[in-house]
Amino acid sequence: MEKESLNHLPAKGGAIVKGPVSTYPELERAILVGVSRKGQQQTWSMDDSLQELGTLATGAGAVVVDTITQQLDRPTSRYLGRGKLDELNELGRKLGCTVAVFDDELSPTQQTNLEEMLGIKIIDRTALILDTFARQARTKEGQLQVELAQHQYLLPRLAGQWSHLERLGGGIGTRGPGETQLETDRRIIRRKIQRLKSDLEEVRKHRRIHRRRRQRSGVPIISLVGYTNVGKSTILNKLSGSTVTLAEDRPFSTLDPVTRRTMLPNGREVLVTDTVGFIHKLPATLVAAFRATLEELEDADLLLNVIDISHPNASEQSQVVEDTLGSLQLSSKAKILVMNKIDQLNHSPDVLEAVVPGFTTLNGSSVLISAKKGWGIDKLRTIIQEQLVANL
After folding, report:
1. Which tens digits make up the pLDDT trace of 161-191?
2. Where are the domains of the chain?
3. Cα–Cα distance, 153 to 155 (Å, whole number)
4. Torsions phi, psi of 383, nearest 5?
5. Top CATH class, 218-391
6. Residue 133 burial by CB count (10 A; 0-12/13-18/19+): exposed, middle or buried?
7. Looking at the whole model, is its pTM more than 0.90?
8. Mean pLDDT of 1-16
9. b/e sequence 152-173, b meaning 16+ C-beta within 10 Å
10. Topology of domain 3-135, per CATH?
């Protein structure tokens, strides 16, 4: 295995593109690491989960040079077994890796142990998602929410920042001063978290005021929900006739709720809100930090559950959305299943069930559309109108 011959770049649809690493000299070289548990039922396959992780890593500015996987009976303090860890260490040196990206959230102990044994940057899935959110946050609210999640993630890991003192083997600077600085840092982080929570509480109050105004107006509220990068912003633009909302082919292009007015076929005015997308293994810190944003879903009269029907993991992505809505106590909300991107299918709609098994068993109305091409948008308006009549 030659160092310059390996370079695995995740491509849309799950394919792997290979090319020489030297083509991307400015990027960090990353190796992806994943573990599955014996006897544990998994909705996502290891390969699919690592493909998504690779897409996130590539978006963050890394080039994925290889992957390491292992099946274990139980978690370990080093995430991997000793033999596989040695293999990872050797492979990382051979390929000139600068970062190892792990497909789960590492405990502080696991992260410290891995840093000591591998000697390179260690990033887990949660840190990578937080980094992606931080790069996409454009408004003050979005930045506050991401910063809170980052500080909550950092707090239990502060001890690792001082591990270099322990490796000095005793003597001056390895006892009191280090511990004092660690405690100081903890107090600073805790105060920062409290301030951010206070600032976000003000945001929640303002959002509640605006929601009450919308409710008093009697205008129905419709919220778009779905996996990240399924085309929610494009649908909002098509429904509202607006091009103000950013619609990009990248994860988490929308972090802050965006609301637009649109008209139904019967002339009734409704408000449509785009919200942050979900993802596999979404960190609990992010769900908590984005509470003010996700509360927009609670007051919606109707949810448009958007699915990228062309994606090879459409069923798994749909399950992630259903599970997340369940955790937010929103499973009973009236929903329309919006199957987007049919322009990218090589199958006719009448064989959809064979292409993506199980979708026809989901509750609620459904519609096939291509927001990019404008196909099915009028039908979507009609189904929204019918659902509102039935539920209001």
Report:
1. 544 444 444 444 444 444 566 777 888 889 9
2. 3-135, 138-195, 218-391
3. 6
4. -70, -40
5. alpha beta
6. buried
7. no
8. 33
9. bbbeeebbbeeeebeeeeeeee
10. Rossmann fold (3.40.50)
